[in-house]
Amino acid sequence: MYTFERMMKQPPILKWFTNIQATEPLCKGLNFDAFLIKPVQRIPRYKLFIDRLVKCTPENDIDFPKLPLALEKCDQIANIINQAKEKQIQQENMSKTAARLDCGTELLMVPGRSFVKDSQIDKITRKSKKQPRCLFLFTDVLMVATPTIKEKHTVQVKFQLKGSEVKDLPDDTEKGFSNLFQFLSYPKSLELSASSKEEKAEWIRLLQFHIQEANKSIGGEKIKIIPIFEPDSKVKKCPLCDEKFTAIFRRHHCRQCRRVVCGNCTKHKRKLPSQSSGERKKRVCDDCWKHDENWTPEGISHSQNPLSPRDNSSSDEDS
Fold first, then answer.
1. In this predicted structure, what is the pLDDT of residue 221?
2. In this structure, is the dihedral angle defined by the CA atoms of residues 159, 165, 166 and 171, taken in order, positive or negative?
3. pLDDT of residue 261 exceeding 60
4. pLDDT digit string (tens) for 110-162?
5. Pairwise CA distance, residues 125 & 86, whole Å
């Protein structure tokens, strides 16, 4: 049907089909869509007819034992048709979504993947600013794209749902942010602001459901959830050297533990597991440098984050 709909948008083909519909007696005035649906419509009619026969046929009739079997067969066929129809709708939705996304070399159409939901939402940065983003949720991954005026959105990052978490957050009245929730995953975690309470509840519900379903799948390594960056405004002094921050004595972020520390305590750099092969080494604090690249300080909770988490964008290398 998706292919047929695209063909009907071409004027020569549409004119040809319209002429046949008007001039061919066999068409009886019905369009092509009506003929496609007719075989599917017959099955429910058969089911209703046999169901009526079961109610009207005496139990001692010679044909009565066959009627329940026929009704069961109709049920089975109807279920098969419904499943095929649902699969077709999912494939059409995936095709339409793929046409809207620029995934680079990433393959979007993979077996078992279905499109679930998309909408524009605000990402909250660690500097307490809103950045518009488009979320595309599939049954196994979440893709975050930048909204553009072009037909296609450019995908910035893809998250595997398996092992990820989603958390509800209270409104931040001080900053004026409402309908907040966290998506905690790898290679980064996000704090998001939905357009309404209903939209927030819907995103949390869908994410939780599909994360649970993804966790049931066999295979694949369990991801290490990356903490969200600690916001600048929450930290008045360096937790390592205890020096107070000023306009000159600046704040910096450790890229491993995501804490706010001073420049003197973040002179080391290393490659982190969340980085791609072509990226430069990232700034890490003295605490993290004493341990391996997978270490995280105790006291950083993902469920009740004491750091009042903010966005963990990998930009601003020197901040």
1. 67
2. negative
3. yes
4. 888 899 999 999 998 877 889 999 999 999 999 999 887 777 888 988 999 99
5. 39
User: Residue 251 is encoded by which pair of tokens?
Assistant: 């704040």
Per the rule left: phi > 0, alpha: psi between -120 and 50, beta: everything else, 254 is beta
What single-letter DSSP state applies at residue 76? H
Q: Report how far apart, in Å, the C-alpha atoms of 9 and of each of 6, 22, 89, 93, 97 are.
A: 5, 19, 19, 18, 19
Q: Domains for the chain: give ranges and CATH numbers.
A: 2-101 (1.20.900.10), 103-215 (2.30.29.30), 228-319 (3.30.40.10)
Spatial contact of 210 and 216, defined as CB atoms under 8 Å apart: no
The Cα 53–Cα 47 span in angstroms is 10
Among the listed residues 88, 52, 82, 83, the one whose alpha carbon sits nearest the alpha carbon of residue 70: 52
Which amino acid type is present at position 290? K
Residue 272's pLDDT is what?
85
The pTM (predicted TM-score) of the whole model is 0.65
Tell me: the pLDDT tens digits for 177-192?
999 999 999 888 899 9
Mean pLDDT, residues 45-74 = 85
Residues 6+ apart with CB under 8 A from 106: 155, 158
